[in-house]
Amino acid sequence: DLVRSGGEPDADPLDALQIPRVIILDTETTGVDPSRDEVIEIAAVRVIDGRPSERPEDRFHALLKNTISVGASEAVHHISDADLQTRGVPPEAAFSALLSFLGEDPIAGHNVGFDMGMLAAHGARVGRPVSTVRAYDTLTMARRLIDSPRHDLGTLVRELKLPVEPTHRAMD
């Protein structure tokens, strides 16, 4: 597997709750096919002792120039092809910066296997492969800890009565 919880096949994904430093990561993409689609947004925040760091150096955000249209997904994440061409950076620069930011810290995210698969595939196509990292999937954790028929982020926000509005933007 590209991503194994804790880096070990038998590791318990809840082990992530004990780690003093972890990076929460999310991506937005042009679609769901790693062999074809592209990452268009990457966001990551370092969490230290259970709290998101407010230091600028502990936050990473990049919009990436695209060669594949965002198409109908623009309605979901509100990022247009024009936005990406104007505000985006070349993917190889974004992947290089991301790899420097990640360092050795483990990653956590909701359905993080998808994000890492997209990062690995797109990164490889632009000559900046994202190597296997220690990653923890909050979707797996939610399924074990929260009794709910669904475990998407919108449902979890409602179930847990969190004071946030779920969006389809990576930094949110």
Task: Describe the protein.
This protein is 30% helix and 20% strand. The N terminus is likely disordered. It is of the alpha/beta class and 172 residues long. Strands 1, 2, 3, 4, 5, 6 and 7 form a seven-stranded mixed β-sheet that branches. Strand 3 and strand 4 form a beta hairpin.
Layout of helices and strands:
Elements: E1 4-5, E2 21-29, E3 39-48, E4 51-52, E5 59-63, H1 74-77, H2 81-87, H3 91-102, E6 107-109, H4 112-125, E7 134-137, H5 138-145, H6 153-159
Parallel strand pairs: 1-7, 2-6, 6-7
Antiparallel strand pairs: 2-3, 3-4, 3-5
Structure summary:
This protein has six helices and seven strands. By secondary structure, it is α/β, with parallel strands linked by helices.
